[in-house]
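Section 5.1 Outputs to date
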Amino acid sequence: MIGLIQRVSEACVTVAGETVGQIGPGILILLGVEKDDTQAQVEKLATKLTNYRIFSDEDGKMNLNIRQTGGAVLVVSQFTLVADTRKGNRPGFSRGATPELGNALYEAFIAQLQAMDIPVASGQFGADMQVQLINDGPVTFHLQV
């Protein structure tokens, strides 16, 4: 399971011109699910995300996590994150989860964050989505479990 996270001052996702998820300050996570991923990876990534210290403290140091700032998380499914790009000019997707598994673990990830009392918004799995964000910093990290 791969998460590309960005610290944002705001972010939203639209489908067919309609906003389906929106947050203010917090984290946008683009979530890629691989074919061998399980609930264990969901729990590990959710824990890592909520404890990852990417927000500035009063001294300007990245010492605070999403819980400490009271921010929200916008979760957007992104199957292209699991693409194999090592050779050729076309990405391969053999490492990606089936749509059924991908959707199940995407929904489980959202539920896991909600169970951790994190405010969560989300995109729509499998949809053609447009994501808008203001990357704060910019701060972007690649998390993999």
